[in-house]
Amino acid sequence: MPIPEVDRILGMHTYATETEGLGGVIKESADDFVVEEMLVDGSKASVTGAVPSRAIGSSAQKQRFLLCLMIKRNWDTFIATKNVAKALGIDQGRVQFAGIKDARAVTAQHITIENVPAEDAAKIDIKNVKVTPIGYIREMLSLFYLLGNNFTITATKVDAPESVVQERVQQTIQELNAIGGIPNYFGHQRFGTTRPVTHLVGRALSQGRFEDAAMLFLANPGPYEHPQSRQVRQQLQDAHDFKWAAENYPSQLRFERMMLMHLAEHPTDYVGAFRRLPEKLLALFVQAHQSYLFNRFLSERLKLGLPLNEAVVGDFVVGVERSGLPLTTMEKAVTDANLAQVNASVKAGKMRVALPIYGFRQRLSGGVMGEMEREVLNSESVNDGPVRLNELSRVGGKGGLRTALAPVKDFKLLSTADAKLQVSFMLFRGCYATILLREIIKPQNPATSGF
């Protein structure tokens, strides 16, 4: 089955299912992609605005942190919380969330606001952002509290009869259920589909090729970005004139402009230019490269025919909480001696097979999987010895483990009428809804299909 070029660029070289794709477009409208956050205590953020009672122990008694429901439409999570802070006249760091939600979507999530009374939060007035106080809690919100997300997604322009759509969706889900879920790829939005270069920038940073990294980020035009952006990037690539670029790059390329302002004055100080960026963005570059390598590892495992729901000697396995969340810090290496015991635990849902997110604190697998991982690193010109850090790659590059499978909970086929496909399901935190949709739709061009 042909794999789109952009998927290959992002390390996704195969599918887990053999069904024919349905085609279609996701996110044609923000209303087509609805995300509702679930916390570890079962509290659900609803786009209806219904306020959960006593979410994570909240109460009316005033404490340091105010827990709120935030519903947004067509807003990036970081920019939305920045505007919430601005509306309250406080530092952005005092507004925290458990997880990043899709920008082109309607999303409901929890946030905490530090040392702000409920009556002030209730007065926030931002277009397409609604903040509703729930109650006060002792600690600020963090990833620790996030269980996962419920998705209700509509694909439009599905070119197949209803009976065919229903049959293919059911068959795809049956194939995924047989292996225990979807391949736990890092999805398209981890890298960007209009200009998928974040992982390439990260690789160059990790290898100390700072000029290459800067030019990839600043001057590598993407085929699906705005024509003006493509034009100025190409001009910089051809002329290498940072002063001209600093004056002519459009305002929406604000991170590029930060670097260009520095390079206009210091044209060879690429490290200094990258240091003008927020540390979280620097970390994102390095982590995107690690995510790409993980996708390659997972693709090669699938191509080798190694199971995702059964361990082989040399694999890592991790524990699973009662909630279903993986405990990636509780790892075990699989040996001949413990193989049967480990696979009994995997079958019982108490453990899951995991692959390395390669970094300075994470070693490769052993056995056949380890050999394949080394081949991938060699093909990517990545040293498989101890990871050497430089002044930029030390940000966000520690690595870790990630499960090979992501269970899909509560899948429902809601509608197949009017050339549309509407489904709902729940995924645990860190897993990508677009990877499930990729198996169902199998888009010829993910960028133009909304991925």
Protein architecture, described:
The protein has 4 domains: 5-28 and 157-184 and 407-441, no CATH class; 31-148, 2-Layer Sandwich (Alpha-Beta Plaits); 200-277, Hypothetical Protein Yqey, Chain: A, domain1 (Orthogonal Bundle); 285-403, Pseudouridine synthase (2-Layer Sandwich), CATH 3.30.2350.20. 34% of the residues lie in helices and 21% in strands. It has 451 residues and is an alpha+beta fold. The two termini are 19 Å apart. The protein contains 14 helices and 15 strands. The model has no long low-confidence stretch (mean pLDDT 95). The strands form 3 sheets. Strands 1, 2, 3, 4, 5, 6, 7, 14 and 15 form a 9-stranded mixed beta sheet that branches. It has a 4-stranded antiparallel beta sheet with strand order 10-9-11-12. The protein has a two-stranded antiparallel sheet with strand order 8-13.
Give the structure's gist in a few sentences:
This protein is an alpha+beta fold and 451 residues long. The protein contains 14 helices and 15 strands. The chain is 34% helix and 21% strand.
Tell me the fraction of residues in β-strands, as a range. Answer: 15-25%
- Tell me the distance between the termini: 19 Å
Rg of Cα set: 23 Å
Mean pLDDT: 95
Write down the CATH topology of the largest domain: Pseudouridine synthase
CATH architecture of the largest domain: 2-Layer Sandwich
